[in-house]
Fold this protein.
Amino acid sequence: NAGVTQTPKFQVLKTGQSMTLQCAQDMNHEYMSWYRQDPGMGLRLIHYSVGAGITDQGEVPNGYNVSRSTTEDFPLRLLSAAPSQTSVYFCASSYFGSYNEQFFGPGTRLTVL
Amino acid sequence: AQSVTQPDIHITVSEGASLELRCNYSYGATPYLFWYVQSPGQGLQLLLKYFSGDTLVQGIKGFEAEFKRSQSSFNLRKPSVHWSDAAEYFCAVGDFGNEKLTFGTGTRLTIIP
């Protein structure tokens, strides 16, 4: 199993550009989530999904969209990138909810100029 | 809303010495609690978790944590640290009602020979 994969590993954007961060898992996990990690702030939940077709907002959802058309994939879309979205983004998945162990991807380092 | 406090930003410990990392949570009901570890440039890995029952839980790599409801704490301990334990450690609290996991700001552990 590949586990949780994220692409790209690194990305540089200009303010106002849009892009999609990809996340996929091959463990048949129902629960998937996106976090951003900033120095001194730990990980903050952006959006999460408890199954295909179901998504909900986390702590810091503004400026981000998600969809969950399949169990395996959970892409994160930046609609109009801003310098405040410069961060490291982690995708994670678990069986049936955040109360189970979450398996994290290797992260995407995003810089917005 | 649930919250997590990790009061120590950075801790330095000699190899072979004991370790205790502090975590305090704020939550009205019975939470579920986790400790995750992040090695440099990596995603997070679960060390241990607490849902209910025995308040002393054992995890991987020789770590343990004790849930103390009266003190709202879930401190992580290890009797003898190894150089490979150098990493950042995150405490997290969850809520069975809303599927969201809240992370603390992390404690960076440095091991000196």
Observations:
- The first strand of chain A starts at residue 4 and ends at 7.
- Chain A has a mean pLDDT of 95.
